[in-house]
Design brief:
Number of strands: 5
Distance between the termini: 59 Å
Structural class: alpha+beta
Shape: rod-shaped
Strand order of the largest sheet: 1-2-3-5-4
Number of domains: 2
Strand content: 5-15%
Largest sheet: 5 strands, mixed
Helix content: 55-70%
Radius of gyration: 44 Å
Number of helices: 11
Length: 382
């Protein structure tokens, strides 16, 4: 819209200058040809002048087209102004200098008013009735025009830079929101796996075992016992799911309290004695770090119930100077040749998935034999 207004305004100015030039009384000094030539050339160059200013993307020809057009207009109109009949020509000199200040770099913009003054000097030498006051007034006029145009250019550039910074800020905000959404999705996915994978996997194995007992040995009492265990697993899994949903919606309890509740719950469900102790000075942990340690404790206790049922378990939460670690120790039994694995009953990720979770926090997870015990140790940096 502003471009259209500028073009219309320039056309109106050209019409008014033309009426002033061709309807005014010429003194018959022979200098009328300069006025006609100046107006005619300006009328021709106003088209590339306007196109250059409104050129989308500022094409390469813009750098040479606009300065050349403004310089020629200023030179001819300055010469015409120095003649007795060129009284309206300073308007075109003013417009050219104003445009130069608006669209050209400062060093190049100053050349345009210089051409206007040089043209008036040349016109004065032709018309000996002129005075230096004519040249001085024109110099002041075009200097003011180029300064005004330069100020407009500075404000325009500032506005464009502010708009670009605002657009970049909006893009950055959108990218941050997308990253936050992806991180939240990944966190919920980890929670779903950590909570449901074990209970559903164990429940599936329990159902398969029940079917095998019924089909192979027709042992109904044993099958009923297995179904009761499956029912307890389902109930426990549902309770864990509710706790996980609550943890996603609200703040989790302090880590020592959460691990203490977890040890009591494991002892009650599986009949295995669990000891829990805290060493060092407790301190708040980031939510992701506390949750990773809690999930590691849950995974270690599930593996203990699977591979060393009813065996004592020792959990120790250590607040050291350089980090926080959880150590879960359980005895290895001679019930089978296999040691506990990092893959749980669902055939999925188990402690390996928790190791990936800790790696995201620059932590570590180690699980292996230490003498006659199986030890799981998770550490997060301070």
């Amino acid at each position: 819209m502003l471009r259209v207004v500028n073009a219309v305004t320039r056309a109106i100015v050209m019409v008014l200058v033309g009426l002033s030039t061709f309807t005014g009384r010429w003194p018959g000094s022979g200098h009328e040809a300069i006025d006609i030539a100046a107006f005619a050339v300006t009328a021709v160059l106003v088209v590339p002048w306007t196109i250059a200013e409104n050129s989308p993307g500022r094409v390469r020809q813009f750098d040479a087209l606009l300065p050349a057009s403004l310089a020629v207009i200023s030179l001819l109109c300055g010469m015409a102004y120095a003649t007795p009949s060129g009284g309206a020509m300073p308007v075109l000199c003013f417009a050219a200098s104003l445009s130069a200040g608006r669209w050209l770099p400062a060093a190049r913009a100053r050349i345009v008013p210089v051409f206007a003054v040089a043209g008036s000097v040349a016109g004065w030498r032709v018309d000996h009735d002129g005075t230096w006051q004519t040249i001085g007034s024109l110099a002041v006029l075009v200097a003011a025009a180029v300064i005004l145009g330069s100020n407009i250019r500075v404000h325009r550039v500032d506005a464009e830079q502010s708009a670009e910074l605002l657009a970049q800020s909006e893009r950055l905000r959108a990218e941050q929101a997308q990253v936050a959404t992806l991180e939240e999705r990944a966190r919920i996915a980890r929670e779903i796996h950590d909570v449901l994978a074990h209970s559903l996997g164990a429940l599936g194995l329990q159902i398969e075992l029940t079917r095998a007992v019924l089909t192979d040995s027709d042992d109904v009492p044993r099958a009923v016992e297995l179904l009761d265990q499956a029912h307890r697993m389902a109930t426990s899994g549902l309770s864990d799911t509710r706790q996980a949903v609550h943890a996603l919606r609200a703040d989790t309890p302090p880590l020592p309290e959460g691990l203490a509740e977890l040890s009591v719950s494991h002892q009650r469900r599986h009949g295995a004695p669990v000891s829990f102790e805290v060493t060092g000075e407790p301190r708040p942990l980031p939510p992701d770090a506390g949750l990773a340690i809690t999930r590691t404790a849950q995974e270690a206790l599930v593996n203990t119930a699977k591979h060393a049922p009813r065996q004592p378990v020792a959990m120790r939460l250590d607040y050291a100077g350089d980090g926080t670690s959880l150590v879960v120790t359980s005895p290895l039994t001679s019930a089978g040749p296999e040691e506990p694995s990092l893959v749980t009953v669902d055939g999925g990720y188990g402690l390996a998935g928790l190791r990936e979770r800790l790696l995201l926090l620059r932590g570590t997870l180690n699980a292996g034999r230490r003498g006659s015990d199986w030890v799981v140790e998770a550490t997060v940096p301070r």
